[in-house]
Structure formats: structure tokens, C-alpha cells
Amino acid sequence: MKRCYHVVAIPIRIVLNHFGDYNPNGMMYVLKENECKVKELVEKHPFSPVDLVQPLVIRANEGDEVEILFENQLPFATGMNFQEADYDVQTSDGANVGFNENTLVDCGEQTLYQITAYHQGVYFFSDLGNPASSDQGSNINGLFGALFVQSRGSSWTDPITGGCIESGMYADIHHPFLPSFREYAWIFHDEMPTVDLTGNKPLDPVTNQERESTHAINYRYEPLENRKKLIDEGVVCPDCDGEEVHHDSWVFGDPASPILRGYVGDPATIRIVHGGVKETHAFHYHVHQWFDDPTNQDSEIFDSQAISPQTWYDIKPFYGLGSLQGAIGDAIIHCHLYPHFAVGMWGMNRIFDTLQDGSQCYPNGERIDALQPLPDRPRPPSPTKKRPGFPNFIPGKVGCKAPRPPLGIVGGRGLTELEKNAAVRNPRPGAVFADPCAVADAPVVKEFNISVIQLPLIYNRQGWNDPKGRIFVKDEDIEDICAGRKEPEPLIIHMTAGTCIRINFTNRLPHVADGDVFQLVTRTYEVGMHIHFVKFDVLVNDGANVGWNYDSSVLPGETIRYEYFADVELKAWFFHDHLFANYHQQHGLFGSGVVHPRFTKLLDSCSGKEVDSGAQVTATQPLIPDYRDLTLMVHDFALIYDQDGCPLNPPEYPSSPDDPGLFGVNYKCEPLQFRLNSPECDPAYSFSSFVNGDPVTPILHCYKGDSLRIRLLQGAQEESHSFNIHGLRWKTERPDVESRFDSQQHIAISESFTFETYAKNSGDYLWTFETEEDLWNGLWGLIRAYDEKVDFLIPLQDRDPPPKRTQPLPECTGCPPAPPSVIESAAPSNAPLKRFEIVAFQIPILYSHFGERDPFGIVFALEKDMNDILKGYKDPEPLIIRANVGDEVEVHLTSFLNFNQFPFLDGIWPYPPVKEQAFYPPSVRISLHPQLIDYDIKTSSGETVGFNPDQTAGPNETVTYRWYVDNPVGTCGMWDMTDIRNHRSLGTYGAFIAEPKGTKYYDPYTLQPVNSGAQVIVVNPLLPVTREFVLIMYDGARLVDKSKQLIVDPVDGILLLDEIDEDLVDTYDNGSRGFNYRTERLINRYTKRAVLKDLFSSNVHGDPSTPLLEAYKGDPITIRLLNPSERRRAHGFHLHGHYWNSDDTDLSSQIRSFSPGIVTGFTADLPLHYGAGSFYNLSGDYMYRSGNIRWDLEQGIWGIMRVYDAIQAHLPPLEK
Amino acid sequence: MPNNEDYIVKVPTINDIHDQMLIKYFEDEVGRKAIILCSSFPFVFIGVIIEVIDDYVVVDVETTSISQLEDRDWYIHIHDIEVFYIEDGEGPRIPELRDGD
């Protein structure tokens, strides 16, 4: 079927909320038939949100051809670049890339884009005519939208009228064979230039400084700061403080941000789209859970999920709206990054239990819009006086805080008559209007007494501390923890599947939190325990104060009773406070529950006594292997002081939103600046317990061969982190054995992951939050696998007991360990051996045609290439080596590093910066750590960790590693682990590609066999001959321009920047970036020719410096994508006109044209569907790029895949 | 050269015999307690064998992976069973598994 839309790009004033915050220079796509109407409405209502001012969402079915007549009314050339779609890049790319025809449209002109939708999902579209990240860019101002592609045969109607719709954020989708469902667009976007009603930048009424930048959904946001002004002025709720009522509709009425409406049980899909430019957000949806990959029923279950710019995913909540327990009420949906949440990035899912025909009102008199029941669902009952339905049975008072729930608070009230009529058959504390524990017959009840307390937390041996730590504790532990007999750690409670959990929750916090250098005085008088994953009654048990629900928090000295049901085995579930989280979550107020398989017993790993809490326990289960269970909770914005009381990384002023403080993991950190105890202060031994002792951060103790479950959560507050375990790996989707192996995981606040693995060898495994600033500030620890019995660790009951101890345990000596006497090999004795003689040396690296270079570069290279590189016959590039499954790999690595060739000999590395700068002199040692493949951790991990032997090489020394390729894991990062401060920015990384057995590799231009290189032809007798392109996305490089001036990216590369805001960038945004030691910064092109629409054109500027990927149409292509570099800002990756399975090992995984969440340690293998030129095998230039307009694209993270239709002299075709 | 006899399928095939023996084995064990593992949800069954109908074994399931599916008869396709053990009075007893024990 062909569908036709006439879309116009227009300038428009976007009013973002009822307080009149607006973007005077907004831009949007709109259907032609709505253009005049929307302009008229905006003119008539300049200070109110106009419904039609919304991101354009249009729809089509799988298999449809979609024709877009595109018209541009903006004062620069624009276009519509579609992700996921098949199209002719010469006519419908909506861009001006390489040697393609220009498919942008000048002001006042039109063009016709033709695309085909061959798979379901979100076809995000945005402009590439103006890629500036500054306030003058197009994307930042709203020029994005989406085409939602449905199952073949679907139709859609307006949820209010039931009539047909051409576009719109919300629709009811119908299908002859499938259930109807509610479809909601949830389009995150950030950094939109915003002023308040007076035309000035909005201020925070508490600090009187500018508030956090705009973080919005669907062109709407509802900042705390605006609502707080109404309290301060005495308009509403004079006894309130602010944050505790931020989401309270009883006080303020409904927010301007999206309210997704439905009836309890309605099937629904929320299409989460990131149309913004910069941040990786964390989508969290109270009450509900969903599959990570909706096409794969074996995929992981999420209830909080990160999303990077220009990416998307679908959320299909299990059991429909209200989940299994049929919860009615307001389930808040928000970005969990707390500063974003506070500034308004939230909305709600409103779940009604009675029919809404448009005649009802909310308690404040606002009319409730009609909502058509889905045609194949039972019609909800009409409201009556006795049973008015949500929210009209709740005894609240408009203008005042939401009422407390009935029954919940000890000593509190009972039910009103209306509440009784709305209640379940057996109402009790925490389960009044839904009964989650009724799912099972007489489930086991597990009761916990939990309090929140304030106490000092000591983060490390150097005395870094948070004097105002706030934590959850079991009541029976309060005395021991406060007396120092028990070390504080995040509260981790354990239970088994099928348990009804009851919590008696007591607020023991002071009414007021004192002010200090980090935060102003705050009246944090309420606290709640908001839970993820488990089933509960959202009205009374959310531990929050949302919409027209009850306020289910508790005042100081009071106890509230909560009830949840853990229906199945789950990952660790996150809990935290939802009332004053912006004040005290980063002080440690978070914890987790772990739902184990039924019949599991949890034991203290030392004594063997049964326990029900603890971050590290041993689990024994009669049907599955016993396991060690470790929970790690990372957090940023840790507001800590040194032992002398000096604040660490204090903000410019108290309560500033600019990333204050440092980091912790389970309330501990082990900064590398304090681990220079070797005789020459050599950073190469910073992770060595021989030299510096064990870290204070968690060490998971186990025996060789033990099964492990690592629970990974982030407790606070705003930033992305990258978790890695060196030497272990796990299945990405834990329930799915077909999913790929990973050894790294991007994480944002509130996300939860469980990694199942086992300690194959004895020794010390390093776990890290691997980005430079995290690792530098101490986010790392160990997994210690013993080969012989120790008296502080019980053996797993279902395994043979470990041998008796014959050797004393190693101890800290202050001296570097010796190298291993024997390099153990994981390979069988008959494995084919591949040897690589690798050298590391210093050499200037030219990064672009514009003369940008790193004068102090350090590269890994094959020894045979070293002279050619040094003499300039060969360009330095990241070392990329390959071996096949079954191969043993022997690496001989030699260091030729020279101390005097480092840029900062005084040991202070100024740029790119990190928080908490300190002395850390350059190491002349080097190492090479690989991901995912198999090796003995004690000899071949390429790092000197714990009580393992030395695995690094000093100048003119050679270290040997033996690796075994036991699995076709594809892309593996490789990097140096001797000195993360002085080496990584200079290029000490590469890649190892684990190919299928029997693969041979050839140079794509000479067809000669090769054993290294970013671009090869891979030939395997059982697989198609394929072009393989390795793209190493790096960040954090330190470059100079041709005048030898330091390039301070991203600021130096920003297009159309009017003024430089000193606080524009965070530490981890700094550094230059691109692919494979190359970059193509747009500022150079713009300086040469100031025409935005030509920035990606090779006709105008020649080809970019980044790798040119060349192929013939239809050639099978695999892209190996990785990021082994250093910065914490997550990137996305997108290739125009192509798509692939999100998991290359799982054919049922979702098809996508992007990869999200790219940070240190990320790897992916992208076999392109249909090969070069995609479905239609069309020639042309296809741009590959980051999805981050701010600050990747301008700064050089883009390149071209060139697909030819005619034979080129320089590029031999693939042999059939 | 293969001769035509190589292509003649002899009935019952070795697979038929294998299947039939499994069915007979379960028929002989009616009334005994079994633990059965399957590759599909809910993966594990513990209970007394009630009867065998064609190639289905009917089990009065007292324990499986989630409690909502217990205390009912399950019809399990014998050829989907990956692993089983039936108490015969001589070997080890199947443990009683109860929540909260």
C-alpha cells in the first residue's frame, strides 16, 4: 500500500508548559493540512501550550511505501532523514552526503521522499541540513519526528473520538487478528533553548541561579522550580516544601507533560524515542515491566531502560496497563536521571477503572476527556455516585497535599465509604485497591523491618567521607551499624519467587537537612520506599506522591506498612526514596531486593548461617547449581569530603545542578591517586594488592569453578557508567542461550542487570566502571577465586570441597610482583598457534586532512610494521588482529616507551580533565588486555591486578600472553591497563576479532593474505565472502591543530556558537573523537566554506578523513564496532539506509539501524541485512555516524560507506 | 551403487521402538513419584504419575517452578521430556520442596 503525507518544516513558538516557558525559535515538522491551523493557534495563544504543537508522528504498515512531499519553510536547507527505512540514497536520504545528490530542500522549495517500511518499529526522522549542536541547530529546536510502522493490516483511530487520524502522538491500533492496543509516543528531547514568560532564562527559586537545562517529552516539561514558586507565593499547599509534591495533582492539577490514558488491562505499546541531542536518559515506568526485546520472549525483563540520542525502543507492558495485579491510578513515567526528573522530564500513565465518556471531571473540576474503550476489551463500568472510579473516590483536598493512604500508616485512619466501595475484598495495609499477593494461593509471607537513618559514611582508608550519609537499614542492624560494629553498605534484601513481601518502614531521619557547600538547607521531612519490579497497589504503596494517588510516604517517627508480591524470579529490584531524592539519594539512600528461584536458601558466605540480607551471600538451591551472589550499587554525585573536611569537587554554589561530588560503589571508592606505593610510583601497579594492598571496595570471594551471579545497579544520580569484568563474560540476555556474550554493560540510574558467569580459573579478576574518571576515582574491585580452602569462605554445597590449603595466602609486600614463571594456556595442546609480535611506541599521529594531530601518540603495532610507521611509510592506525575459533594466540608485547616523550612529565594530566586531579606520573610500562576470549587471569589478562603476577612490560622488555579463542565472540576490545591517565588519550587501544573456525583474511585492495588491519575480506568455506570493517569509536583524544594549539573539544568544534558558557560541558565531555585515530570536525569544513548544507558533501569538501568503507552493491558486510577509549558520555551509532539484528547471534532479535549506549568496553557485530546498499542494493554514499548531535557529529564522529555499482580499478570485487 | 533395499523403511523404526519403550516405562511406573525436566516452561515437574494416555504422561504436580501452576494434573508429552527420575524405593528419594522451608 502506498501512503502519502505532505510534511512542512516550519518555524514555531513552542510553549512547553502552563507556566509559559517557551522556545521562541522552535522548529517542527507538521502535516500540510495542519500548518495554517497550528500557526493560527500559536498566534492566538502565545503563552499556553497548543496541542497541535507536538512532534510529528505519522503511521504506516509493514510493507507500505510511504511518499513524503516535503516542503521547507525554515531559513536554511533542511530534510527528513529516516532511520530503519529502505530508500534510494540519491533521492530520499534527506541529507547531502559524499557524492550523492543533495536531497536537502532549500527554503521555500519542495521535494518527494520515497521510502519503504520493511519491518515494524519506529522510523525516527530528523534534519541533517543544520547539524549544529548550539542553540541555532535544528534538532535541538525540535526538528524531529517519527513514523510508527505497525503490523501489516493494521488501522488506527483517535482514542478520544474513535474517528480516523492522519497523525498524532496517541492512537488506538486495531488489527483483524491481533488485540487492539493503545499506542503512545514518548519522545524524549533535551537542551531545547528555553526562556520563561518574561523572556529571560528560567531561574531556580531556591538558588536564584539558572535552572537545569531543558529535558522534555513531546515538547512539554513540568519543572519542579515552577511549581515550587506557587508554594512559595502561598498559592497552594503552604505547609509543603516542593519536591515532595512535585508530581502531586491534588496540589497543582495535572502537568503539561504527557498523560497516557487507558483502562486497566488495556494492551499498550509505548514507543520510546530519543529525539534529543546529548544525554543518554533512563526511561522508568512505575508498576510495569517489559521485555528488553519485544520480539524475543527469552530476553531480559526491564522496568527501567537507558536510551541514547536518535535511538528508540518499544515498551509492551506485561499484562497490559496496571500489570498482573490490575493496579489502577497514576503510574508516573520519567527519566530517572534525577536532575532531569526534577526539571520536568516526567509524565504519567493514568489507568482508569470506570468509563470516561467526557462527562466526568477530576477533583479540581477539570473535565476528563472521553476515552474510547478498545473494541475487543470488556467495556469498563460507568461511574456511579457510590463507585465514581479513580480518582474520585479518594478523599483529597484540592490545593493541599495528597491524602495519606488508608490502613497503611501505623496508628493511621481506616477507609471511607467511597474507599470501601472501591477496595479489594480483603483490604489491608499496602494492598487496598489491588491485591498483588492474591495471585498465589497462600503465598509465603516475608516481613522486613526497615528504617532510614542518617549517619557518617567513610568511603576509603584516606578518610573520604560523607558526614550526612542517608541509608536504608534493617531495624535489627541499626545499633550495630551506628556503633561501628557493622560496616554500612546498601541494604540488599533477599527473598524467593512467590513471596509476599511485607515491609514495616520507619522514617528516622531528621526533619531538616542542614545546608553545606554542596546543598542548601532542605526540609526533607517525608520519605518513602519506592520499589521497582515487584507487584503492588500503586495508589497506596508506591512510596511516592504522584498524580491523583495517595501520598504513600511517611513523616519522621512514623511507620508505614507496604506489601509487594515477587511473582517470579527477578533480577535485583531497585528501591529508593521518591519524595526528596534530589536531596538525599546521592547520600546513599538506595538499596535492592533480590528475588531468587523458589526453594533457594541464602547463607552467610563466611559462617554458613542462613541470612536474608547482605550484598554478598551464598545461594544454595536443590534444582540448579549453587551460586555466589554479589550486588554492586554504583553512584555518582557522592557528596564527600576528605579527612580534613575539605569538600571534593564541590559545586560552584550549593544546590547547583552541575555534577557535584565524586563516586562510590557500595559506599566505597579506591582512587588510583592513592595507589602509587611502588618504588617508582609506577601507575602500572595501581591495581596490585602486593604493592598497595587490597582495595576497600567489594571483593567477591569464591572458589575456582564457582557459579557467580553479579547484580549490577546504579543508585544515584545522573551519569552513565560502564561496568566491565576482566576475564569473565556472560550472555547478554540471561534467559536466552542464543544471545551474544558480553563482558561490559552500560548502566544508568535505576537500571538493574544480573550477570551469570563462573570463575573458570583461580586468581583475581578485576571488575571496573571503566571510563577514565570513574576508574581514576576508585570504582573498581576484585573477584577473588581461591584454588585452595580458606577458613572465611564456605564451599558451595553441590561442588566437591576445595583442596586443603598448602600455600599461605599472599600478602601486601609493597613491592611489584614477579612475572609468572609459566604462562598457562587455556587452549588444548593441539590448538593451532598464532603468534603476534607486538610493539608499543610513541609516534605523532595525524588525525585529519586539516592537520589535527596528536604529537605524543602511543600506538600498538606489529613489530614488522614498526620501522615503516616510524619512517612515515605507513600511517599509524589502531592495531586490529584476528584469530579463529580453536586458535591459540601467543602475544609477545614489547614496550619502547620513553618517559621523556610523554606530554606531562610532572604527573599532572590537564586535558582532557577528570574530577579530583592529582599526581600520577606517566608509566613507561605497557600491557594489552583483551575482552571476551579465554585465558588464565593470573598470566594473560594484560594487567597486574590483586595478587596476580606482573603482566606488564617495561622499556625494552617483552611480556607474553596466551589467549584461546574458544568461541566466535567477534569484536573484542584490547587496551592498555598500565596507566589509564597518561596512555589512553594517546591511543593505547586496538581490537581483537574472534572469527569463525576456518576463516582466512585478505586485504580488500591487494587481495593478499593479512593478519591485521581494520578492513579485510573474510573468506570462510561455510559462509559468504564478506567485507569486514572495524570501526573503533574513540573519545577523549588530546589533539593539536596545525598551529600546534591545543584543540579543546567539544567547545572548539561547536558550530554557530554565540557565546561560550563556562559550564557548558562536563569533565567527561572533553576530548576529541572520531573513528580509528581519525576525525572529521565540521568546524574545519565550515571555516573553509560557511554553508551548512554542504558540510557532509564530498563534492564540496572531498571525502572525510575518517575511514572510507568501500564495497560493491550487494556485497555482504559486517561492521565490527567498539569503543575501547575513555569518556563517560555515551554515544550512539547509526548507518544510513541499512539495518541489522540487534543481537547478531540471535536471528529473532529486533531489527534496528542503530546501536545505543556506546561507552568504554562496548562491542557489537553488525552484519548488515541484504549487504551493501541494503534491500534494493543501491549504490551511493551512506553516512555512518553518532546519533549525538551534541557533541559528536560536529566533532568528527562520522564517515562514509561508499557502495559502487560499477567495478573500480582500485577495488577488486568479491569472488563468488 | 546402493540397492533399493537401502531405501526401504522398516517399521517399526528404531525411533518408534525407543518411543514405545519410554511410554511403557512410564506406564509401568504409574503411582510413583517422578521429577521431570522439560525444555519448555515451566521446565520442572515433581509429582505422582497418575496415568499414561497415548504418549502423554499425566502427573499430579505438587511442585513446579512457580506456585500458581502446582496442585493440578499436568499432561506432559513424553517426548518433550529431557530428563526424568522416578522413585523406585531403592534409589534416593525426591526431596519435598516447600516455600519458606
From TrEMBL, chain A:
Domain Plastocyanin-like: 58-152
Family annotation (Pfam families): Cu-oxidase_3 (PF07732)
Domain of life according to the entry: Bacteria
Region (Disordered): 366-390
Keyword terms: Metal-binding
InterPro entries reported in the protein's UniProt record: Cu-oxidase-like_N, Cu_oxidase_Cu_BS, Cupredoxin
MF-aspect GO terms: copper ion binding
PROSITE patterns in the cross-refs: MULTICOPPER_OXIDASE2 (PS00080)
Segments crossing the lipid bilayer: none
Protein name: Multicopper oxidase
The organism of origin for this protein: Guptibacillus hwajinpoensis
